[in-house]
Task: structure prediction
Amino acid sequence: MATSATSATQRALIFTGGQLGDWSISLIQDSDYLIGADRGAFYLVQHGFRPHLALGDFDSIDARQFKQVQDASEECQAYDPIDKDWTDTELAIREAIKRGFKKIKIVGGLGTRFDHSLANVQLLAIADAEGCDASLCDENNEISLLSGPGSRDIEISDRYPVVSLLPMTPVASGITLDGFQYPLNEATLRTGMSLGVSNLLAEPSGTIHLREGRLLVIRCRD
Amino acid sequence: MATSATSATQRALIFTGGQLGDWSISLIQDSDYLIGADRGAFYLVQHGFRPHLALGDFDSIDARQFKQVQDASEECQAYDPIDKDWTDTELAIREAIKRGFKKIKIVGGLGTRFDHSLANVQLLAIADAEGCDASLCDENNEISLLSGPGSRDIEISDRYPVVSLLPMTPVASGITLDGFQYPLNEATLRTGMSLGVSNLLAEPSGTIHLREGRLLVIRCRD
Result:
């Protein structure tokens, strides 16, 4: 298990369900603490990685695959699918927070079931409340949460050129953008307003300022 | 244009981007008022339908396809992609509300870009605020919004057997479920809690009660 001394600086990478691929493997750094949630754990093992922690109800893999995960992981926590109240990804992010990680990245988690996708994105709020720097990404999206009052610097990215802002609270106010193609100055976004969708950086870097509420910062590509 | 006399009872069906397919065509009823947003308009025309209204910036179809849409639609509104503040789907739902429709279904709208998917789902809040019965569906999901205080009856469905509840406000409270496999009684869901994900009906029909806040009711299948 990671000690609190390392976990304060080390990044926890949580592989979960959804569309995983070569792009996800390329994110892994030697220093990462690797957590596999359900099928995400099997994906890591399949690709020759040894998860520090595998967890979930493992209802998306068969018994033979589960045995492989158990054998190849440093630690494995299996939960009863009936009795558990949380999704596997929520179990994983809560365990990462409990173990003291301050940088957490969920890899995958977006797929055809919108309930799973949105629930995974909403998990960023749990990490944010614990003072963690958390994000979720897949091949087409990198999503993080900005809580007001606060600001976020954004570097231009070939991989995810589009920057969209969507409110995660009924109202997000005092939104000012520096360095963007479509500027905003002390703007307010309410649930249902698509004004913040599909912005682009006009300079090599930009900043998003938010006074009140919560914003999802979604970087993506077509 | 639909008169207010008919639009109060007629359903507006908004075809938009994302994954469209045979399942979407099978939703169309003779009595529907058909709106096509951008590529959704072309999809309708391609399949032999005559949209009552086509609208958008049409940046996702080429000039020849746009000509086909213009020729085959009763009415066509083209917007400048640079000057417009709203996505094509927001333009469409606002136009449907303005024309007096009280039943609105967005068809499509979920895809690989999570910003577009979530923005489209959040549009349900605009319709809800205007007293409309609105939903969004694709092949795997049917999503609607429940505002508290209120309740929603749910019939069992082969197509979308799973019922998930996710809060759309920081807190949704007084949630009680009747007829579900995993019951809730006066429960509270906060952003980031996945407790409401993947429920199932235990009886042919069930009811969701909500006292305060907003819940997304997501019916889906694996």
About this structure: Chain B touches chain A at residues 85-87, 89-90, 110, 112-119, 121-126, 129, 139-141, 143, 162, 164, 166-170, 190-195, 197-198, 216, 218, 220-222 (CB under 8 Å).
